[in-house]
Design a protein that fits this description.
alpha/beta, 7-stranded parallel β-sheet, globular, 21% strand, 7 helices, single chain, Alpha/beta knot, 7 strands, 35% helix
C-alpha cells in the first residue's frame, strides 16, 4: 500500500487570525511550575491542535516570547491565548469563581480515572498539570474539584508532563467537540 504524504499546503490549516476567532472547546490548561520550556512549548502546540480556550502559566513556568518554548510550540504561542499568574492556587480560585470545574491531573487518593470522566458540553473545565518531578502542589490539589489520573499499565509511575497534557487535552476535545 503506497500512500503519498500530504504537503503542508495541502493540510488546509487556518491562520493565526482565523484560529483566534474560531470556536474553542471550554477547556483552560494550567501549568503549575513546569520547568521545561520544551514541555511548555509542547503544551502550546497541543492546545492549538485541539483549540483549547487558554493556557495559564503559573509559578516558575516560563512565558513567551522564548526561543526554547518556540522550538516546540512552532508558533502556537502566538495562536493560543495565554496569561501568566504567579500563584497557581489563586488561578484555581479565579477559575472556580468563573464557574469552571477544575481537575488536577495527579495520582491521588480517590482520583478519577480518565476513562471514567463524564463531561457536559455546557460546562467549563480546567486541568492543572504540574512540575516534572513534584507534580501539582498539594495545596493546589486540595483546592481542585477533583483529581484525574491517566491509567498506566507498565513499570513507570508517571508520564512526561507534555505527554500527559496531550492525552488529557485530546480526551476533553473528544467529549466537548461533539
Amino acid at each position: 500500500m503506497n500512500r503519498r504524504k500530504l504537503k503542508l499546503e495541502e493540510l488546509n490549516r487556518i491562520s493565526v487570525e482565523e484560529f483566534q476567532k474560531a470556536e474553542k472547546i471550554p477547556l483552560t490548561v494550567v501549568l503549575d511550575n513546569v520547568r521545561s520550556q520544551h514541555n511548555i512549548g509542547s503544551v502550546f502546540r497541543t492546545g492549538d491542535a485541539f483549540r483549547v480556550e487558554e493556557i495559564l502559566l503559573c509559578g516558575i513556568t516560563a512565558t513567551p516570547p522564548n526561543a526554547e518554548i518556540h522550538k516546540t510550540a512552532l508558533g502556537a504561542e502566538d495562536s493560543v491565548r495565554w496569561c501568566y499568574l504567579e500563584d497557581t492556587l489563586a488561578a484555581v480560585r479565579m477559575l472556580q469563581e468563573k464557574g469552571y470545574t477544575v481537575y488536577a491531573v495527579e495520582q491521588a487518593e480517590q482520583s478519577l480515572s480518565l476513562e471514567q470522566l463524564q463531561l457536559q458540553g455546557n460546562k467549563k473545565y480546567a486541568v492543572i498539570l504540574g512540575h516534572e518531578v513534584h507534580g501539582v502542589q498539594q495545596a493546589v490539589v486540595n483546592a481542585c474539584d477533583d483529581c484525574l489520573e491517566i491509567p498506566q499499565y507498565g513499570t513507570k509511575h508517571s508520564l512526561n508532563v507534555s505527554v500527559a497534557a496531550g492525552i488529557v487535552i485530546w480526551d476533553f476535545f473528544r467529549h466537548l467537540s461533539r
